[in-house]
Amino acid sequence: MSLYGAAKFVVAPLSRVAWPQRVEGVHHVPADGPVILASNHLALIDPIFVGTVCPRPVRFIAKQELFDESTLPRKALSRLLRALGPLSVDRRPGQSAQEAMNNSVEVIKGGEVFGIFPEGTRSPDGRLHKGQTGLAWLALTTGAPVVPMALSGTGRILPPGRKVPSFNRVGVQFGPPVDLSPWSGQAHRARPRREATDAIMAAIAKLSGQEQVPRFAASVKAELERGRQ
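Above: the chain's sequence. Below: its structure in token form.
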């Protein structure tokens, strides 16, 4: 058994006990070959549910904030994420976004499942925000199918400022691959990338039931933080 398999063997049942889960649409994940899982993002703990529910190992390009070990619960979360990855983490100063995307392409072309949160950061208000077009660039460059997925309930488990995770029901729903054929071969063009990304975000919104916001989550988060000062 691989390290990933061993970690999932232990973590998956524990997570189901702590956070009862309703999972739907797993059959939409191809049994083999490259695939991109595109999900909404409500909490730091989201990758654990993506990794334990998906029937295949999932690879991520993860932000450093996911590996914050400032408190005991966050340290435990960090260790779980490292075990369930194996996560590709950007630790090199000055690494560009394009380098991170190139690394992602290698994962996808290797026939693996690549997980991505296209909002770029956690939703600051529970709504679904504008997706980063790097998602469409990856899909159109590699030709990998994009399976939309939606998480619910995770935002109440470990919200910002909370030190101890709470117990809460979690929903995980997968949808059919998004048809990106209208934009095939146009990864190099900005407008097709935006349109394809918007199509994927609409599919996620249909699954999650979230209100869509035509703004980037990072911008909304910055405004909210300024308002608290």
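The helical segments are 3-18, 46-53, 72-84, 97-109, 134-142, 190-208, 217-228.
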